[in-house]
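Convert to structure. Protein one:
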Amino acid sequence: MNMFIIDKEISVRLGVFCLVFIAMAIWEKMRPRRLLTAPKGKRWAINLSITLMNALVIRLLFPLAAVGSALIAEERKWGLFNQFAADNWIVGIIVS
């Protein structure tokens, strides 16, 4: 089960998102908290575009920031592995 989730992570996330989105849309239709001032289609388009931008930022920007931070740390000799002499294979075993 865990390997399925890991292998199909994007599909699982999208499926869960769609299920939650549909459940919330039904809930909103059945029990609105207030009168609508903007059309639902416009609100949903804006909210889904924010969700898409969030997903893109998380998928693209965060890994780039992590790699950039690691390169800066290596260049400036920050971090534990830069303070002590260790073979690459030892570092690989410890990190993984």
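Protein two, convert as well:
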Amino acid sequence: MSIPGLVSVFRAARRLIHQPDNDFSWSGWTDADEVGREIDAMTLVLERGELPDRLAMRVLFAPTGPLQELSLSSGWAQEFLELADAFDRESGSL
């Protein structure tokens, strides 16, 4: 597991969720600010050298999870898949 690698993944996710014209309808979030707060909270924990709630992190990047739903309805599904792969690599055996 690589905490710096996870920080990079979360920062990349934050950039994607703030793209214009994202459609949050199926994600469970109302807007970019809501998901941004969730991602920022996890990033801050990682930057302290600690691990956020493992289940919350896994759900975020899971197939049919909220980020994938957002990506599918917003036109960046391929970028999500690459990000999810990076999360899997960096998280190791969480």
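The two ends are 8 Å apart (CA to CA). Residues 32-47 form the longest helix (16 residues).
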